[in-house]
Amino acid sequence: MDERRVADYFIISGVPEQAEQRVESKPFINSVLPITDVTVIIKSLGEQCPIGYTCIEFTPGGHVADLNNGNFKSPDIHICYRRGNDKPPLVDVGVYHQDKDRVLPDVEVVYKTPYGRFASTGNSLKSGTFITFRRAKTNNPYNQLVVVDLCVILNNKSEHPPHAFYSIKKNLNKSYYGMIGSEVFLCYKKSLLAPPSLCYTPQIISRFPLQDCATFPLPDTVPLFCLPAGASIELRPSNSPLPRPVTSTFVLTSDSAQKIYGSALSFYEPYDRSLLSQEQKVRLGLSEEDGDDATENQAPKEDTYALKSICILSRWPFFDCFEKFLTFLHKLVFSPHYSPNKPNSPTHKNNVSGTSH
């Protein structure tokens, strides 16, 4: 007898609650912290690199990274930068020529060194040349390109930007004396700023029906198609907007060469922090103030979320219809008016014994 089912399986995939069932899909790597501050120091006047900063001493080719390189009548100026996560990272750096550029409203200019001296490079008497930067907005620092590295190159020494670096085509060493001095360019590298996370191999958390169909057993690899990048536990700032749910489709082939069509919707869901081990909390960078004992007057600064997916498997390629249904189901469950104890809720229907396909 041919069963006319619209869908064969409904699956929820993600990070299992039981710690012994979690399998890390990627080794934990301490990613490079983004750059949060940039300044310049005048070494020839005895200025030292500020505490916590890194000074760019040399170019990729081994030359001195003096912004006035080869200009003997100018002081030795070097760029210093600081990494961290205590403030919004930099999303752009630039070079400002005072005589012909205009400063945008959200751009900050490094006019002074940490010691209060004039931070202009070159020796032009008409105008100054300054380093500029633009900072990310505080309400959503993640999932955007931020500056993660800086370097200085000398164009007249046949130096080129390192791999993945972008060169700002504005000479930092503008000389009043014409061609004296090297052509000094600032280069920066950007990377996608991801929140602190732990990535695991996705597994089936729940499914319906509970037994496999005789014509098509449920493949164990379905969660990998629902969450190909892995199921992650992430730490995000409180009150920051979450990424929108993402829909995807895939096609599986059974042993009998029958095609099975999958429609999935992945989303972020609040994750109970008490399920994390002490080691996981340390790796996520959770402090004691953000732990389980946070009081009402001391709310956590960051919330914990887990990436989860809901999926429909069917022998019919009704991708548009399934996407609309999954989107509706997601909105229904995360609606403030939703209650899982209502008789019409999907949870109640799923628990009814003897439910047919």
From TrEMBL:
> Which residue numbers delimit the MABP domain?
32-192
What sequence ranges are listed for the domain UDENN? 184-357
Could you list this entry's UniProt keywords, alphabetically sorted. Answer: Guanine-nucleotide releasing factor
> Which Gene Ontology terms of cellular component type are present?
cytoplasmic vesicle
Instruction: Specify whether Protease is a keyword of the entry.
Output: no
Q: Which InterPro entries match?
A: DENN_Domain_GEFs, MABP, Tripartite_DENN, uDENN_dom
Question: What are its GO biological-process terms?
Answer: regulation of Rab protein signal transduction
Q: Which GO-annotated molecular functions does the record name?
A: guanyl-nucleotide exchange factor activity
Q: What is this protein called?
A: C-myc promoter-binding protein
